[in-house]
Design brief:
Elements (H helix, E strand, L loop, with lengths): L8 E8 L2 E6 L4 E6 L7 H9 L7 E5 L5 H9 L4 E6 L2 H13 L6 E5 L6 H6 L7 E6 L15 H7 L6 H11 E12 L3 H8 L4 E11 L6 E7 L7 E2 L3 E4 L7 H9 L10
Parallel strand pairs: 4-5, 4-7, 5-6, 7-8, 9-11, 9-12
Antiparallel strand pairs: 1-2, 2-3, 8-10, 9-10
Helix pairs in contact: 1-2, 6-7
Length: 269
């Protein structure tokens, strides 16, 4: 799946030098993004749609970038409070502006920080462990030992671990989530074994949700969700087929990407 995908209606308007003004969820949300480097796309929107959050709950996103996933979630679920933690200060600044321009600044806040921080440092930022109903992340997809760095520094930091192992993302999420709360990740399908190994002993009731580019094609991404303290067995869900034979989004995918519908794990193909 291409990250600069047609879930986004890109409208470069020069809103700010080096940034584009892009529409998400059928242009229900307008987001500033870097004109070059990492740009949020399908993965962020689908992950946000999969979080089983309800009114009155608190949700934390690790590695929130310019806030696309967090704001898609806040827009979909009224009365939900969302916080995004992001390492790059320029992205935090734009995420805050994105929240403001979409009238979500009272329910979606963004703070600068590193998932590798000590717990005591996170507490000083108001990120209390075991206090979040749901924690989710779109971790870096590439290992710098086995993949060439993207030429853009921001894209490299978003896509390559640069010292943050997948286990660090899992430990952070599982440290912050409440008992019986959920942790969710979207990742490459070929990294599923590593993700499951990192989650072992931290959560149960794991659900694996494949994202099929088209009928009959291998899944290139998976969404994985686990529940802290659950003893339920692992479940492989039917997943979601994204494109039909004509190359257009399937009806179900289009409803999620354009109309902000929830992604329901146990819904049949």
């Amino acid at each position: 799946m291409n990250e600069a995908i047609d879930a986004i209606e890109a409208v470069p308007q020069g809103a700010e030098a080096g940034w584009t003004d892009d529409g998400f969820l059928g242009s229900r949300l307008q987001m500033l993004q870097p004109a070059k480097g990492y740009r949020a796309g399908l993965d962020a929107v689908l992950l946000a749609a999969s979080i089983p959050a309800r009114k009155g709950e608190r949700v934390l996103e690790a590695g929130s970038g310019v806030g696309v996933a967090s704001l898609c979630l806040a827009s979909r679920v009224a009365g939900l409070d969302v916080c995004g933690l992001e390492l790059q200060p320029d992205l935090v600044r734009i995420a805050r502006e994105n929240a403001r321009r979409n009238a979500l600044q009272t329910r979606a806040i963004f703070t600068e920080g590193d998932i590798g921080q000590q717990v005591r440092d996170l507490v000083t930022q108001g990120l209390e462990p075991q206090s979040w109903d749901h924690v989710f992340a779109n971790p870096p997809y590439h290992d710098p030992a086995s993949a060439a760095l993207p030429p853009d520094a921001g894209k490299a930091q978003a896509h390559v671990t640069l010292g943050s192992e997948l286990g660090d993302w899992v430990r952070f999420a599982c440290t912050m989530v409440k008992p019986k709360g959920t942790v969710s990740f979207v990742h490459r399908a070929d990294a599923l074994a590593s993700l499951l190994a990192a989650l072992e002993g931290h959560v149960g009731g794991i659900e694996i949700f494949p994202l099929w580019p088209a009928q009959g094609k291998p899944a290139s991404r998976v969404i994985l969700r686990g529940t802290r303290g659950s003893r339920a067995p692992l479940t492989l869900r039917p997943g979601l087929v994204l494109h039909g034979r004509d190359g257009r989004f399937t009806e179900r995918a289009d409803d999620i990407l354009r109309n902000a519908a929830a992604l329901i794990f146990d819904q049949p193909l």
